[in-house]
Design goal:
single chain, 82 residues, alpha+beta, GIY-YIG endonuclease, 3-stranded antiparallel β-sheet, 3 strands
Length: 82
């Protein structure tokens, strides 16, 4: 199983879109750990949206589609449809 997920940090008011084959709990734990990447800038990330896929290719394509939006409004619209 593969996941596309969206994280949100209140402290920096930003979204992060990613994909993973590991459990969402483990992936979030790694985002919250100390590191130099984008998500290392905040320690309050939470998963606000996710989709499941059977193939890595489908997950990557969906992640790229969402990232190409480059729009908080479109991401918030997607999240609000839950």
């Amino acid at each position: 199983m593969f996941y596309v997920y969206i994280l949100y940090s209140k402290s920096i008011a930003n979204y992060y879109v990613g994909f993973s084959s590991m459990s969402l709990e483990e992936r979030l734990r790694r985002h919250l750990s100390s590191h130099k990447g984008f998500t290392g800038r905040a320690k309050d990330w939470e998963i606000v949206y996710f989709e499941s896929f059977d193939t890595k290719t489908d997950a990557i394509l969906r992640e790229q589609e969402i990232k190409k939006w480059k729009s908080k409004v479109k991401i918030e619209t997607l999240i609000s449809k839950l």
